[in-house]
Amino acid sequence: MGGAKVVRGSRSVNSCTETTPGHPPKRDDTMATKKTAMFTLTERLTINQANTDTFAAIDLGSYVDVGDRQALQVHSVDFIFQGTSSSDVGPTGSFGATTAGVGVQLTDLNRGGLVFCNDRALVASGVLNFDSDGFLSQATDLYPDNFGKGSDDGRYVVNDQLYITGRSTAIGADEAVNVTVRVNASIVTLGAKDFMAIAIQSTAADN
Q1: Do the beta carbons of residue 118 and residue 19 sit within 8 Å?
Q2: Best label site of 131, 135, 171, 181, fewest CB within 10 Å?
Q3: What residues does each domain of the chain span?
Q4: Over its length of 207 residues, how does the chain's per-residue pLDDT go in tens digits?
Q5: Residue 168: is it exposed, middle or buried by C-beta count within 10 angstroms (0-12/13-18/19+)?
């Protein structure tokens, strides 16, 4: 990825360090039956205005089926930060001559903006910081329900979209920060009670 900054697999010191997970972890190994091997969904978010929430979405209509109790099992999420173009060596030139922070969140409900980290809809989030000396640092939140110890662990999503929200405190003139979200997932069939419990919990999170 050239100079891209990749955020993955370490607990954040900048955003959601001490919060509880969005959904309870999978209770046992019999909750879901796998229908596919793991695959990757990707979506790119382009942030070109400072202090403004920017949105994108991943359509799950082909993966989630209520009638068949079919859900998406999210195993891990990576956030890749790049500059204005794919040939930029990292996003350092995107901020001008100022410090900046970029936050990005993935949720399974449309919140219309960034959320606090105890929000049940939050699947994963990451932060990229740029300081006055030109150094980049990053962190990603690690939740036990979507980054389990084994391949059978994960966050179950029964909604028809995943929502991406990003925001930067600074953007240089004619510049942008591009954030690619890579969701590693598989399709599973849930038991009737398990599917209903997750659907009810997701509905409750919308209140």
Answers
A1: yes
A2: 135
A3: 5-17+27-73+85-124+131-171+187-205
A4: 445 655 554 333 334 433 333 444 444 445 788 889 999 999 999 999 999 999 999 999 999 998 889 999 998 899 999 999 988 877 888 988 788 999 999 999 999 999 998 888 899 999 999 887 778 887 766 554 544 445 567 888 999 999 999 999 999 999 999 999 999 999 999 888 888 888 887 776 665
A5: buried
Q: Which 3 state secondary structure label does DSSP give 90? A: coil
CA 13 vs CA 2, 67, 97, 154, 180: distances in Å:
26, 41, 24, 23, 21
Question: Are 163 and 106 in contact, with CB atoms under 8 Å apart?
Answer: yes
* DSSP bridge pairs for 9: none
Query: Residue 173: helix, strand or coil by DSSP?
Result: coil
Helix (H, G, I), strand (E, B) or coil at 81: strand
Helix (H) or strand (E) holding 139: strand 136-140
| Rounded Cα gap, residues 50 and 102, in angstroms | 10
User: SS3 of 123, please?
Assistant: strand
Residue 6's CB: how many other CB atoms inside 10 A?
A: 16
| Beta partners for residue 137, in sequence order | 129
